[in-house]
Write a structure and sequence with these properties.
289 residues; mainly alpha; 12 helices; globular; DMT family transporter
Amino acid sequence: MANQRNRGIICIILSSLSFAFMALFLRMAGDLPSIEKSFFRNLVSAVFAFIMLVRSKEKFRIRKKENLYLFILRSLTGTLGIFCNFYAVDHLLLSDASCLNKLSPFFVIVFSYFLLKEKITLFQSGCVAAAFIGSLFIIKPSFASSSLEASVIGFLGGMSAGFAYACVRKLGVRGERGPMIVLFFSLFSMLACIPFMIVDFQPISGRQLVFLILTGLAAAGGQFGITAAYTYAPAREISVYDYSQIMFSAIMGFFFFGQVPDGWSFIGYIVIVIAGVTMFFYNKKHGGD
């Protein structure tokens, strides 16, 4: 069980790194409609999942028909989460949008309690709360009343993503394969993008296409990583490590855009690292499954 947990931790950290690269490439892709960016984000993931399934023995098969509703729920809430997050990015300060999106690990634990009956100790809840507070030190959100609608949508995006990842965990527990989960979600999300792209499509330059492909590759890595993570271990033991994406993004911001974190941000880094390390040793000591 300990090895499974450690694999889950490694997968979610690698996933966070991949998603940080995705955000970097997404920004470098320039001024394009969020829906187009979302479409390419899922297109590459779908291709990778398709190839993996073609090479597998079971091909494109959902192992248990009673899991179909979970596939649909995961895809619906995951797609809603992407759309809400992009809407928030387009209409809020980036710090506000990022903060709302980082609520998803918290919601993973909440929804895993209801979907999987995974118990949460007071100590573990404290670690997750500390990590969330640390993220607030870093992104320092400044909520404005004039942006209430976008803020609510961004909040719903974080909640939707948390529900989606809890569904991933339950699908993994029920024996469903990661590539099938990713392919189902990617195709669902792409189909949801098509009507919007027909209404508002903008031509893409060669440079933008390159960065969109890189965005998709990074997103695929992140998607496979987080899917694997929640199939290896319960959300209460690993979701806190998803906050490492904030640190990766800060490092990339410094090297690519010359952004230097302030003192509040460094306090946030320390809080997050301490929370993550503390939770790791707590789970190791108590032998959580």
